[in-house]
UniProtKB/TrEMBL annotation:
Species of the source: Nocardiopsis composta
Superkingdom of this protein's organism: Bacteria
Ranges of residues in domain ABC transporter: 2-233
InterPro entries the record matches: AAA+_ATPase, ABC_transporter-like_ATP-bd, ABC_transporter-like_CS, ABC_transpr_LolD-like, MacB-like_ATP-bd, P-loop_NTPase
SUPFAM superfamilies membership: P-loop containing nucleoside triphosphate hydrolases (SSF52540)
The keyword ATP-binding belongs to this UniProt entry's keyword annotation: yes
Keywords, alphabetical: ATP-binding, Nucleotide-binding, Transport
Record protein name field: Putative ABC transport system ATP-binding protein
An example molecular function term from Gene Ontology annotations: ATP binding
UniProt keyword Nucleotide-binding, yes or no: yes
Cellular component GO terms, alphabetical: membrane protein complex; plasma membrane
């Protein structure tokens, strides 16, 4: 799959013939220097950006050629999102935020599942609170529940710990790891943080729109060393 932004002389090649398979029930971190194409890769996978050429499949179903309306439906029901800034709706309670993707998809929430994930993420006693009444870490837990609630084919997380202090960040990473281990959730996360990346099964390193390396069972220091080497080579 490739993705170019702009045309002719102004064209920027964000992804160049990237081939990658995110297997079910695995956790992959995507790292690389600024502008290397990480977010573009995540957005192509989530159906937010279409590849300029090539194919994208989600849970075995091709999504690259779908008309916009169908693509929006697929995004709502098959993709969960976790963002750096949480992106909760300020006027809705934690529970209402959690259930919003289900509502938009016209589906009835499974109450037991909602109780299970809000209990496991430790926000069961905060469900009637508004986002501004919650800490950053708690807001991100609500966002993780919102991502899990539809049992999506993939959760796409873009810098999920970027706005958190290190101890809340570690708690959020532990929960994302549990979502993979306990619920067999497939998770793809863009991060600049070697500690966050070390929670993944595999790290992909992107440089100039290409995957230049992969690392299994990453440790924070080996990830940091590889990032330093890539930055120096860039
Ligand atoms: N909407 C857009 N229009 C034009 N160029 C874009 C657009 N989005 C991304 N790009 C360009 O594509 C390239 C890859 O961008 P992308 O955001 O995917 O990189 P990234 O690795 O996520 O960067 P960062 O770590 O800084 O967030 C960059 O050169 C960027 O300027």
């Amino acid at each position: 799959m490739s993705r170019t932004y702009g045309e002719s002389a102004a064209a920027v090649s964000a992804l160049e013939e990237v081939t990658v398979d995110f297997r079910e029930g695995t956790f992959t971190a995507v790292m690389g220097p600024s502008g290397s194409g990480k977010t573009t890769l995540l957005q192509c996978l989530a159906g937010l950006v279409r590849p300029s050429s090539g194919r994208v499949a989600l849970g075995g179903v091709r999504i690259d050629g779908l008309p916009e309306k169908r693509l929006a439906r697929v995004r709502r029901s098959r993709v969960g999102f976790v963002f750096q800034e949480f992106n909760l709706i300020p006027a809705l309670t934690a529970l209402e935020n959690m259930l919003l993707p289900m509502r938009l998809a016209g589906r009835t929430p499974d109450r037991e599942w909602v109780a299970e994930i809000s209990g496991r993420t430790g926000i069961g006693h905060r469900l009637s609170h508004l986002p501004h009444e919650l800490s950053g870490g708690q807001q991100q837990r609500v966002a993780i529940c919102r991502a899990l609630v539809t049992r999506p084919a993939v959760i796409c997380a873009d810098e999920p710990t970027g706005a958190l202090d290190s101890s809340s960040g570690r708690e959020v990473m532990a929960l994302l790891r549990e979502a993979v281990d306990v619920y067999r959730q497939t998770l793809v996360m863009v991060t600049h943080d070697p500690v966050a990346a070390s929670y993944a099964d595999t790290v992909l390193f992107l440089v100039d729109g290409r995957i230049v390396d992969t690392m299994d069972r990453p440790a924070p220091h080996t990830v940091a060393e590889q990032m330093t080497a890539l930055m120096e080579g860039a």
